[in-house]
Specification:
The protein is α/β, with parallel strands linked by helices. Strand 10, helix 5 and strand 11 form a beta-alpha-beta unit. The structure holds zinc ion.
Length: 253
């Protein structure tokens, strides 16, 4: 499985895109920085998108990805998310106020956008990958995703504070190759992390103790303003095989 980091930050300043990953060139996992990172030629290859939750730092380039490619021959996009997240996108994003409702455009019969409800923990298939959405503990309904192919699997927690079910399921995944989880704030902002459903290095440590598989862990979600502090505090955890994701880098699992 090839995963390119399009953006791995929990905020946006020049050179720092928000959460989005490109899997095997055609599937995006979250869309905080898809149109910001890919050329038009690359964007048109993206046919399927997993959305973990409704927050803008995971969805804000969806409108432009669709708008950029609306007239490209054969362009269409399927978005997969749990029902709560689909409802939020219908009501607050593609609602004909914030942005056109592309689920009815250019017409009802052949719309460019399809919103696909997925059931938590039920497997579904996209482009040779078997995928499961697993609920995590954030302030809005949110799932991580487990992606499996014939060679291996990766688990992405998305935004979460301390959580249980995600780790329980991750520990049962055969051929797990890596986990991607978040660290948004430095330890000094623990109260803010707690109320907003995020992790700091201090709460990341106990989360990693729940992972029983010996696989590398990659972090994303850093608030750009606090990047240096988060980096130092992650390093101070002194955990083997714990890495901060690098924007623009492609990882092969
Ligand atoms: Zn969030």
């Amino acid at each position: 499985m090839k995963i390119k980091v399009l953006g791995c930050y929990g905020g946006n300043i020049p050179g720092h895109g928000m959460t989005a990953f490109l899997v095997n060139d055609t599937l995006a996992m979250d869309a905080g920085w898809v149109s910001g990172a890919l050329t038009l030629k690359e964007q048109v290859k993206v046919k399927d998108i997993l959305i973990s939750h409704s927050h803008l730092d995971h969805t804000c380039t969806l409108p432009f990805l669709i708008d950029n490619n609306f007239s490209a021959p054969g362009f269409s996009l399927r978005i997969y998310a749990i029902a709560d997240v689909i409802a939020s996108m219908k009501n607050h994003l593609f609602n004909n106020h914030t942005w056109p409702d592309f689920t009815c455009l250019p017409n009802d019969l052949t719309p460019v956008l399809k919103l696909v409800d997925v059931e938590p923990e039920q497997r579904f298939e996209v482009n040779g990958l078997t995928i499961r959405a697993i609920r995590v503990s954030h302030i809005v309904p949110t799932t991580g995703f487990i992606l499996e192919d014939k060679k291996g699997a990766i688990a992405f927690s998305s935004d979460t504070g301390p959580t249980e079910r995600f780790w329980e399921i991750v520990n049962t995944v055969d051929r797990l190759k890596a986990v991607i989880t978040e660290t948004s704030f430095p330890n000094e902002l623990q109260d803010l992390a707690n109320v907003s459903g995020h992790l700091t290095p201090a709460t990341l440590g106990p989360e990693l103790d729940k992972l029983k598989k010996k696989v590398p862990v990659y972090l994303y979600g850093f608030k750009p303003k606090h990047l240096a502090k988060i980096k130092a505090q992650v390093r101070a955890l002194k955990r083997r095989d714990l890495h901060m994701l690098v924007q623009g880098k492609t990882y092969n699992f």
